[in-house]
Design goal:
Layout lengths: L8 E6 L19 H13 L4 E4 L7 E2 L2 E2 L10 H9 L6 E7 L5 H15 L3 E6 L4 H4 L10 H19 L7 E4 L3 E4 L6 E5 L4 E5 L11 E4 L4 H10 L2 E4 L4 H13 L12 E10 L3 H15 L2 H12 L37 H15 L3 H8 L5 E3 L1 H13 L5 E5 L8 H13 L12 H5 L4 H10 L1
Parallel strand pairs: 1-2, 1-15, 2-5, 5-6, 6-11, 11-12, 12-13, 13-14, 13-15
Antiparallel strand pairs: 3-4, 7-8, 9-10
EC number: 1.14.-.-
Enzyme class: oxidoreductase
Protein name: NtaA/DmoA family FMN-dependent monooxygenase
Amino acid sequence: MSKPLKQIHLAAHFPGVNNTTVWSDPNAGSHIEFSSFVHFARTAERAKFDFLFLAEGLRLREQGGRIHDLDVVGRPDTFTVLAALAAVTEHLGLTGTINSTFNEPYEVARQFASLDHLSGGRSAWNVVTSWDAFTGENFRRGGFLPQQERYSRAKEFLATANELFDSWHGDEILADQETGVFLRDAKAGAFVHTGQHFDIHGRFNVPRSPQGRPVIFQAGDSEEGREFAASSADAIFSRHATLEAGQAFYTDVKKRLARYRRRPGHLLILPAATFTLADTDAEAEELAKVVRRQQVSGATAIKHLEFVWNRDLSAYDPDGPLPEIDPDLGDDHISQGRAQVRMYRDPLATAREWRELAAANNWSIRDLVIETGSRQNFVGSPETIARTINELVQADASDGFILVPHITPTGLDAFADQVVPLLQEQGVFRTEYEGPTLRHQLGLAHPDDVRDERAAS
């Protein structure tokens, strides 16, 4: 008997906190004006996507004290944007990246519970940590935490927030037509938490929201991040969008679930994926080359090289050869804790490999960064991209994809109009939304039902 087809999950990432956006394209619009967010969200909802994903950077991207073009310069507050989008959408999930290193559980729980009420049960939280010294300078605590302590704080942060979400129960409130909502149980909202990172007690002042808790996303790829996702997340936002890497990641994370008394369906694997779409595969391949050169300017290429060399390379020509000097292995890194440092654990070996590639292919610095950096995951005609996405999902390389267009806000339009109908025709993507909440779209159980299932097992 053949295996039933999996239903594909699709989401849309509003770009900007990355280097995928093509600023120079004449179709590029604002990353600040609300109309851009509205167009993007309504396109995603028209295509019946599960959710919109809004990343957040807590400081302008800089290196050596200078701002550069890897990020949007200025982005409105995530909660403000998502709350406003709740009023102009009906079914689309609203996912925001909120940092657990520089925030407090009470305020974050209150904001997400409020967003869940305002949206009718469509909120989701991408729980992230930060080891970025630049960002730490913006906050009272300052600095950054070692990796193990970051995840320790994140786990306790989420557990504490869940205690706050769960401090209200359905039978503890009644609605009065004249006076509004009032308490029937004096314990409603009461909480006490004492732990390594948080020692708080009081009363949570937002009643139980439609989803009980926001859907929880996690984006770490380290051993600690994978274990955190297996223990606590509803979905994991990964970077493994190819067949072999995707299958390995999928298998590894899913097999961790059993130790937390969770089933494979309790955690979705949703890699980020860029795409280049054209009428034919050949046209898409040519367009993808153009897009990559637009995404990686000369200045951007030098900044990427500095991540490995740990030196000021501003005097080098990005269209010239790689530096003959070796990387500086000192502890005082030029990017001061930037996440990219983790990608190159052996800078000397990376420099040797890159020099060999550049020599063999006659690549300049910019050529090398373009060819070794992230590439468009899906390139081709609508038929090719639809087929590729479906094959990857059916092969358990993922449960779906979070799509990152290179143009804002119209970059999702062609995918919605040309690729989604093909997936619907194949019977692997919805034609209507399944229910009112994001948990309905993702096929995730309500937290109360999961708790009852665990108690009965």
